[in-house]
Design a protein that fits this description.
single chain; mainly alpha; 85% helix; 156 residues
């Protein structure tokens, strides 16, 4: 019971810490506020599912953010190439092969980044909490996909 209370306390603490950025950021657009709200909700969700202590959370989230930045930079580097994927009928075989090879290499590069950070996660957290991170990642993606599907259904 004490662990649950500490966990709830940590979740509330994180949400309160992010509130100034979420609610009162001057000059922020609704889009930025929504993004910040989603990020705070995500952190609270993962922190709760992983049962992170305050110290674990302080050590873990900067590493996760670092990994996300590396993955984002990789996607950004290849963004223009993948925009052209939608125009496959206008691309010759040589260009299409190069695009597909690049896509395979990007998948390999993403995996290398994830493996690197898996090692860092194990240095910061007990292995059971690392496993809970991966489980929470899967369940969070399912929640996001369900919300996205619901939004699409509501638009139609």
């Amino acid at each position: 019971m004490k662990n649950v209370t500490n966990n709830n306390y940590l979740t509330i603490l994180i949400l309160i810490a992010f509130m100034p950025f979420i609610s009162f950021s001057q000059g922020s657009t609704n889009k930025n506020q929504n993004k910040e709200n989603r990020e705070a909700t995500k952190i609270a969700y993962f922190t709760n599912k992983m049962e992170l202590t305050v110290v674990e959370s302080q050590n873990f989230w900067p590493v996760v953010n670092e990994m996300q930045q590396e993955l984002k930079a990789l996607r950004s580097k290849n963004k223009d190439l993948f925009k052209r994927t939608n125009e496959k009928s206008e691309i010759n075989d040589e260009e299409l092969e190069k695009m597909m090879d690049t896509r395979m290499q990007m998948g390999l590069d993403q995996m290398k980044i994830k493996i690197k950070y898996h090692g860092k996660f194990k240095e910061i957290l007990p292995i059971k909490k690392v496993a809970k991170y991966y489980e929470a990642t899967k369940s969070y993606k399912k929640i996001k996909e369900a919300k996205r599907a619901k939004r699409i259904d509501n638009k139609n």
